[in-house]
Amino acid sequence: MQQNNYLQLNNLVKDFHDGRGNVVRAVDNISLSISKGEFVTLLGPSGCGKTTTLRMVAGFEVQTAGDIILNDKKINNVPAFDRNMPMVFQSYALFPHLTIFENIAYGLRIRKMPKDTIRNDVAMAAQMVNLVGLENRYPGELSGGQQQRVALARALVLKPEIILFDEPLSNLDAKLRIQTRTEIKRVQQLLGITALYVTHDQSEALSISDTIVIMHNGKIVQSGSPEDIYNHPADPFVSDFIGNANFFEGKITELDKSFVTVSLLGSEVRIPTANAQEGLNTGDEVMLAIKPEAVEVQPDTGQFTGKIEVSSFLGATTEYKVEYSDGFLTAIHPNTHGEVHNFRFGQDVHFSFKTDFFKVYKR
Questions:
Q1: Which 8-state DSSP code applies to residue 257?
Q2: Summary count for the chain: helices (H), strands (E)
């Protein structure tokens, strides 16, 4: 059973000085509760404050204000080496002159653990991350994915309270990223370790997280399950960041308990009222957001007309950039058997929307 509020960030603030007498607020009064055994991902663009938050939790940065509480104990003044929260870095941070065994064992030797304990614990950690047989090699003899698993084993062997990840997969190619993130999630679930993970990769966050925390300009703008974040974005920023949404300007022409009718591209669309931001009224100027997979492009049927500007075959899907009267939109079609329309550059097409997937925000 999960322990609620195992790790708490209460009104956390971090200010930096830019060298010209100005104060830059990197983290702006954020609060977050993490349950024991939960996998939480901080997601956002570069400069949003996610890595600074992680470094404060690790003890590498001292917060300007606020509290970090672990298991009901304030750890504001506990040094990093006493927090038992190892961090897996983007750069692996392995010792090139030490063998894989010695790299994994490094933290245990610093703690002056008995040799038998070190041997047994390293063997277990290597087995968990599929490194058995590689213990006598050196980091330079391993692939990037294997080196990242060494870094993971080095953290796991310490039997941590919480394990921290700072964009650990950024240096790997696409296939290795998928393999390694699956390995990280498998081990985390197997051991029931609490994980705090930082990334700017939306698909990575969606695939491994129990909870995603979206950050922007030093603030938390939304948190929830991957399904909730993806399907119910709180504002246009989240809608665009988590799904590369298409945006349109419109005006509410009718509003009732079931549907909101919005003028769009010289026509009207009916959208479930549940998809509209609270507090909207008839006559309001609004922003409509819809994800590319909810845009249907057809050769000769559809509510609106446009022209193919770019056609990108991506294997499982094809992505189209469609030029229309007011600009461009993106559509993504699955390449299921018998349903592939191979539209080409310059081809005239029709398009329509799955209106149940529109989100309506006040402009």
A1: S
A2: 8, 20
Query: Where do the structural domains in the chain lie, given as residue ranges?
Result: 7-236, 244-362
Beta strands in the chain (DSSP E): 7-17, 23-34, 39-43, 65-70, 73-74, 87-89, 162-166, 194-199, 211-216, 219-224, 246-255, 259-264, 267-272, 285-290, 295-298, 304-313, 317-324, 327-334, 348-353, 359-362
Residues of 53-76 as b/e, b for ≥16 C-beta within 10 angstroms?
bbbbbbbebebeebebbbeeeebe
| Second CATH level (architecture) for the domain 7-236 | 3-Layer(aba) Sandwich (3.40)
Fold matches, 7-236 and 244-362: no
- How long a stretch of residues is the chain? 363
Amino acid in the structure at residue 266: G
d(CA 325, CA 337): 32
Residue 39, CA atoms < 13 Å, CB-side half-sphere: 21
**Strand-pair partners of 14:** 27
Would you say the pTM of this structure is higher than 0.85? yes
Q: Which two tokens stand for residue 89?
A: 């870095």
Residue 1 has pLDDT above 60, yes or no: no
User: Given its phi and psi angles, is residue 39 left (phi above 0), alpha (psi -120 to 50 degrees) or beta?
Assistant: beta
Q: What is the pLDDT of residues 294-340, one digit of tens each?
A: 999 999 888 999 999 999 988 888 999 999 988 999 999 988 766 66
Encode pLDDT of 133-178 as tens digits: 999 999 999 998 899 889 999 999 998 989 999 999 888 888 888 8
Alpha carbons 178 and 188: distance in angstroms, whole number: 15
Here the tokens at position 256 are 């009732």
> Closest Cα to residue 192, out of 71, 4, 32, 35?
35
Instruction: Tell me yes or no: is domain 244-362 CATH 2.40.50.140.
Output: yes
Cα 308 to Cα 219, 237, 342, 343, 350, distances in angstroms: 38, 26, 11, 7, 10
Q: Is 283 left (phi over 0), alpha (psi -120 to 50) or beta?
A: left
φ and ψ at 307, to 5 degrees?
-140, 135
Q: Are 153 and 128 in contact (CB under 8 A)?
A: yes
Tell which residue, 127, 164, 121, has the closest CA to residue 149: 127
